[in-house]
Amino acid sequence: MLKSKPSVLSLALATAGMSVMFMSYGANAADDIKPIVQHKTVKADASLEVDKTTSVQAASDAIADDTLAENDQAIERIAVKGYSRSLIDSLNSKRFSDTVSEQLSADDLGALPDVSMADALTRLPGISAVRTGGQAAEINIRGMSGGFVFSTLNGREQVSTSGSRSIEFDQYPSELISSAAVYKSPKASLIEGGVAGTVELQTISPLSIDKDYSFVVNARGMHNDRASEVFGAEEYGSRLSFSYQGKFLEDTVGIAVGYARLEQPSVATQFIGLAYNDSKELDGLANDTNGPVDNPSYEYISEGFEMQHLGGVETRNGYMGAIEWAPVDNFVLKADAFMSRFDSESFARGFRAKLGGRNASVANPVFDGNSVTGGTFNRTSKSYTRVEIVNDDNQDFDEVNNFGINADWQVTDRLNVNVDVSLSSAKSDFRNGLLWANVAQDANAETPIFDENVSISYLLNGLDLPDVGFNQADAFSDIDRVMVSKYGIYPFLNEDEVKAYRVDFKYDLEMDVITSVEFGARYSDRNYSNDRSVFEYGNDGAFSKSQPPLKLTDDMTTVVDWQGDFSYFPSYLAIDLDSALNAWFPNGVPQPVQTWGNAGGVIDPQGYTTNYSWTMLQSGEVYEEVLSAYVMANIDSEIAGIPVTGNFGVRMVDTDQSATMLQNVEGDVNLGAQNIADSIGIINQNYAPTVQGVSYTDYLPSINLNFKVAEDSQIRVAAAKVMSRPPINRLAGDISASVSDDGKINGSSTNNPFLMPFYADQYDLSFEQYFDEGAFVAAIFYKNIDSFIDTVAIENFDFKGNGFNVPEYITDEISGEQIATTNGTYTTAVNNAEGGYIRGLELAYTQVFASLPDAWSGLGFNASYSYTESEVQSITNLGGDTTAQALPGLSNNVVSATLFYSYEGFETRVSARFRDEFVSEQVAINEQVVNFDGETVIDYQASYQVTDGLGVLFQVNNLTDEPTRSYFGTENKTGTLQYFGREFYMGFTYAM
Q1: What are phi and psi of 191, to 5 degrees?
Q2: How would you label 836-866 residue by residue, b for 16+ Cβ within 10 Å and e otherwise?
């Protein structure tokens, strides 16, 4: 315990040079911080160096006023290190923030133990994550998905490789981030964009470090315990980082550099249920009207299901650099850069069962409502029932670049000017190569014949693995039966860039209520582009006559058996992609192109027999210019004797958004039709290129008040109008239609350049109680959201009547017979007029038992709980039956807890994160929003400080091998079941 009750500022002065750093958060903040510590005796000395975050005058006053400086009096100093230190720093940051926020901080650059910032952020109250490939990637805040979360790095807007506005936090190595804040209530000076909240990441400011220099090296090896079950998967990986920070020329120049490399196996074993996109009369009930609009008496049937092994390697290289120059006391110039390269090369192997649609013969159907969840499907002459052996090759090469220059000038004692120029860019090159193989009657025949004797039996078991049976099961691993029938590659290339210019002013006032005024302006220019392309050869539904299948050889294949819970699935052939393609294309594999193919309006299709117009129509650019300005007043006053701090202000935002589009005008030159050539010179005469969009202006008021009701207690009140713009890729023009195997036409224009933002009015009330060894926080919030973007499905849509280029017939490649096309579903995006509330409760408690005797003093825990509910619902028919679905990202209950202990260099902790059911994008299939089952993820870590500089570490992520489970509307209609394995890390950290 403290022998006296000095201010933290004077303690910090009295202990300069020690490992603990405290930050100044305002004129009165430092007087109220109570450190939590281990005991160490030091002597006060008025000549000690003052931290640059505190003015010399304030330091002198603190020393003069405090008895600690008298006669070198010995005091007892509580020095917090490790995880406890990080918690206390975070609590102090939260306590003296001027908004409702959560904070993360690290002892030093490279000290956060998490694989990425996504893992780190999920330790905060009200924040959860969606796992992709077993790793936390997308952040949900207060029950809202990543699309409602705005993110900045060093106060600058970030673009993303995701093709939307939500950044992928797994691309930000925790080793290169020094602190993070989640602003749950905005203020006028914050960049607009987060209805759910704003995540602000910070890299190090090298002149702010206590020491003249620091150097940290972190190295770990890793192992995934499920990789041995997946043929061809990597079991081992590594993680390496180093960082350096130094001050030079009498602390006028600071330099920081950092590098972090992660190379980890990507492993999963999964079952995937496919959406219910067809229907057939199966129950025989009279007067049945629960089916689709065009056939109300029909029952919904699934497209099929998949069983897959996933493996590969994810490699992330992160780079950080900063140089800071302070030639005089009142001016600082800083240039910084952050770059990330995230490459993923993976495979997906197994088989895909296609049930065959309404033309299949179905026996013994099992129903969940009006949807079929089991039965025996047999191929007919008109159905596409089949089992495909899949050997997919996925490559994703992502780049993130962020550069900025900032000048901070204290012009006078009262006026501060800050100027910032930045560039944020991202690029994603995703190439998914798909290799299909089908079963032949005899693969050695001169003209192989596709085996049409196909029978598939299955019964879904909800959130458990299904029962399955195949009459061709023995053939799946027989080289004399399986032949490669099709190869396709469908790249997505996204590029996103924003240039921003910002100026901020702060003027201090000599007033009793308003202590200062802040105002400023920001201009940003954003350009997003998306390019699609394609190459296909062969046929996945049968054997093509013009592009015949490939006979496999022993050197191309390996028989793969399933293990563990999946061991009852039939074995299959894993096919070496490169060997197969080299044999099939001895002159080299043709590359994908952006082309019209044989679309309507094409003059010469150059031999193409397929309409590939979607590669042209789904490619384009989005332009967004934003001009914003704000004014904000900072408050420091009293009401009825209660100190009140905070701010109020308004932000004006003017947005001009537009996108390129190709409109089908049937070749009418009076409507702008032009000869538009694709990447290989095929010309289409039907389309007119246009740029369309909308402009709008918004005013966003906000207020944040903090009432210090007692010495260690405060109540926060906040209110604001907030906005989130539509995902950037949803503004791109894309209009397409395609014909399925059975002749049904489906189309989409899921994007819309006229989409408007999400708007919400939000209110926050919180109580914070701080004590010597921790804190308790309780908060309630309410958001009233005006509207959402809905993806609306219009059934039995008249495609030809609405100007789509669609054929009247398609030709069956097996029989050669013509099949008449029929109208299916058209999907488009709109701003709906129905909003609703989101409201919730958050509780957080932190306890560090530093005052306990001896070995017990290192014990502590922190925990948080949030309850969120909303009246907002959407409608989904992915499971056939129309079902109400909750707001994406919303879990009613989210709990996180960490129990930690340290003693004489040893530190250990176990963390658990629980979230109950929620709605999000399908893990294994993009752009399907489905229900997810609740999950609990447990991590463990232990470390030992061998010397002052050297520490060793052991870590286990996903200790219980928690799977991801999803479903379509009801649990009986299985979506995905994914098992990722445990990840074990062992390594060391060296600091000097």
Answers
A1: -65, 135
A2: eebbbebbbbbbbbbeeeeeebbbbbbbbbb
**At 328, is the secondary structure helix, strand, or coil?**
strand
Helix (H, G, I), strand (E, B) or coil at 11: helix
Q: What is the secondary structure of 58-95 as a DSSP string?
A: HHHHHHHH-GGGGGG-EEEEEE--HHHHHHHHHHHHHH
User: Which residue shows structure tokens 């050197």?
Assistant: 555
The reported pLDDT for the residue numbered 391 is 94
Cα-Cα end-to-end distance for the chain: 30
Quick: pLDDT tens for 595-625. Answer: 999 998 999 999 998 999 999 998 999 999 9
For residue range 352-393, list pLDDT tens digits in order.
999 999 999 999 999 998 999 999 999 998 899 999 999 999
Pairing verdict, β 455-461 and 464-470 = antiparallel
316: helix, strand or coil: strand
pLDDT at 925: 56
Residue 451 has pLDDT above 90, yes or no: yes
Residues 6+ apart with CB under 8 A from 171: 116, 161, 316, 318, 340, 342, 398, 400
Which residues is 932 bridged to in the sheet? 918, 966
The pair of structure tokens assigned to 110 is 């490279």
Question: 3-class DSSP state for residue 474?
Answer: helix
Other CB atoms within a 10 A radius of the CB of residue 730 amount to 22
Q: What is the pTM assigned to this prediction?
A: 0.84
- Alpha-carbon distance 935 to 916, whole Å? 6
Q: What angle do CA 447, 450, 454 make, to 5 degrees?
A: 160
Q: Across-strand partners of 606?
A: none
Task: Give the span between the Cα atoms of 432 and 489, in whole angstroms.
Answer: 6
Give bridge partners of residue 151 from the DSSP assignment.
199
Q: What is the CA radius of gyration of the chain?
A: 31
263/261 Cα distance (integer angstroms): 7
**Strand, helix or coil at 287?**
coil
